[in-house]
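Chain A, query sequence.
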Amino acid sequence: MFRFSNSVFERLWNRNLIDHVQITVSEKPGVGQRGGYYEEAGALRDMVQNHMLQVLSLVAMEPPVSLESEAIRDEKVKLLKSIRPLTPEDVAKQVVRGQYFAGTVNGLPAPGYRQEPKVKPDSNVETYVALKLFIDNWRWSGVPFYLRTGKYLPQSASEVRVQFRPTPHVLFAAQCGPKLDANALALRLQPNEGISLHFNGKVPGMSLGVRPVRMHFSYDAEFGAYTPEAYERLLLDAIAGDATLFIRRDEVETAWRIVDSIRKGWENKPLTNREFYAAGTWGPVAAEDLLAQSGHVWHEPQMIT
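Chain A, predicted structure.
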């Protein structure tokens, strides 16, 4: 609804103006009592195969011919099929896995994954995944999409950050140094649903200083209405016969092809030291390296109140 009902943003949604896109689904708790399940699934199959690829398809798909469920699902499948396939060599360069070790969360000690119940003491199962994906179609050619998800991160949040291309720095280099913050649009999916626009504003006074500022829109503050939980919405849609938010068979198969190629690239490879992270931090050093290769950095989800 946001993408296609607002002409001011719809016209910006392409490779000409967008530098890259970050999708973050962070979870503050660890695996807890789900160690046995996580030993079988891991973060890749638990979160990336379904939730994160769903968000990616909605962010990047082409306009559907109507709002009917099949028209929307057709475009989602088309988008997933446009994701550049990953060879084992690509996986080594574009996918990072991680596993948390003992740390501190909310000021209290937190156990490492290998100390959780029903987890093998030498487990290589990932509790964190970061990916760099490319969509080979006309709209998104050359634009990297960064996805990350993990357990025992500093906050529980789901956010899409659209990072726009920077302006030339020739006008503001003297006041702002070599880099002026690029504009960004953050869509907060949960909690505290809302949208935040990041741009640069003049600092009041006689100087010519410029610094980043934000405008926030909060669903709760604007509408004050109860927002149904995810499964409430799905149950109601199932009763009403609306399949829009349900995954079609060809969509499931396409998503699994992406995930299976990553698992094949990881086969028989143990975790390295750069892939471990302390509980309560934003993930392993290898995830920072993934973005640094292209001159990018991860942005923490912003609180919208």
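The mean pLDDT is 91. The chain has one domain: 2-182+245-280.
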